[in-house]
Amino acid sequence: MVATIILAGIIFGFMAFVIGKQIKKAKNGESGCGCGCSGCSSANACHGIKIKQK
């Protein structure tokens, strides 16, 4: 019983850390995937980048 509570606390703590990190990155204007947006097909959806069509 105690081990289950400790394990649940660790898992929820890790989830809170990851969510907090994603919120901080979003507030700083960083991308969520960690990659550059130059080759990303979804760059327009993330950052509103206008893609020139030929």
TrEMBL record:
Query: One Pfam family name from the record?
Result: FeoB_associated
Q: What is this protein's record name? A: Virus attachment protein p12 family protein
Organism, by scientific name, is: Clostridium beijerinckii (strain ATCC 51743 / NCIMB 8052)
What does UniProt list as this organism's lineage? Bacteria, Bacillati, Bacillota, Clostridia, Eubacteriales
